[in-house]
Description:
Protein name: F0F1-type ATP synthase assembly protein I
Largest sheet: none
Shape: flat
Organism: Permianibacter aggregans
Number of helices: 4
Oligomer: single chain
Keywords: Membrane, Transmembrane, Transmembrane helix
Order of helices and strands: HHHH
Transmembrane segments: 12-34, 40-61, 73-97, 103-123
Strand content: under 5%
Radius of gyration: 17 Å
Amino acid sequence: MRQHPTERGRAFVARVHAWSALLAVIVAAGNGIYGLDAALAALAGGAAVLLPQWYAARRLLQPFGAGQATRFYLALWVFQGLKWLFTVALLGAAFFAMKGQEIHILVGFLLTFQGLWIVPLILDRKGKS
Length: 129
């Protein structure tokens, strides 16, 4: 049975977030050679990317009717703005809580953020979209 496009989109986004979370854990484990604090800092940087992204995607991937294009457009702007606001807040909280681990936070943040761009390309190429 064919899925509704929104359901297919949700499934694809869920796979992207799962693979990106795995990438964040791998980056944190790699930073573990510098100690547990570095690993936790890298994980906090990855969480600063993934948590707001997951929340915004979950809110936006709801079925909107064809006549509700304006509602979706407004929701897109609102949730993208909230996503970036929450990302900055979580990144700031990580910097504040883990003084001295800034480079590890940035490594986790940047690699997870880039993973959110690269993972969909890999999944799409493998026919998993």
